[in-house]
Specification:
Elements (H helix, E strand, L loop, with lengths): L1 H82 L8 E5 L2 E2 L5 E5 L2 E5 L7 E9 L3 E10 L1
Parallel strand pairs: 4-6
Antiparallel strand pairs: 1-5, 2-3, 3-4, 5-6
């Protein structure tokens, strides 16, 4: 009886191995095909993502260049404004005090540019030395009163 069981088991193993082997081979082929399809899809997605990234990078770079140009234009305008100032530090000018500031300094204008003159009196003319020049105004010290 043991021999009989071994023969049936052997036949079953041969049948099991042949049938399963074919099925397994088919499944492996299907899985490999699915894997290839997934790899292709992934490669396409990577390419699309890289293209989107490149487009976004170009847009950001263009925006940056535009902003940089605007900044340079503004900076250039500020430089031009500074060059257009009618007085410079160390320069001696003659001016008339037109008003008094909140701290009692005389206020004069040279070509519309405000010059603060500490100790200056309204209506009097002075020869002053410009001590500092800011973006919108300057300070000057009285050298002498002019008549």
């Amino acid at each position: 009886m043991a021999d009989n069981i071994e023969d049936e088991t052997g036949d079953f193993e041969d049948q099991f191995d042949d049938e399963n082997l074919e099925e397994m081979e088919e499944e492996v082929e299907e899985v490999e095909e699915e894997l290839e399809e997934a790899e292709e899809a992934l490669e396409e997605e990577i390419e699309e993502t890289e293209e989107e990234f490149e487009e976004a990078s170009e847009e950001v770079e263009e925006e940056f260049e535009d902003e940089e140009e605007e900044f340079e234009e503004e900076e250039s305008e500020e430089d031009e404004e500074e060059l257009d100032k009618p007085v410079s530090e160390g320069e001696t000018v003659e001016l008339e005090v037109e008003d008094l500031g909140s701290k009692g300094d005389g206020i004069a204008r040279v070509e519309g540019f405000v010059v603060f003159v500490p100790g200056g009196e309204v209506g009097k003319k002075y020869e002053v030395e410009v001590t500092s020049v800011g973006r919108k105004f300057a300070f000057a010290e009285i050298e002498e009163e002019v008549e």
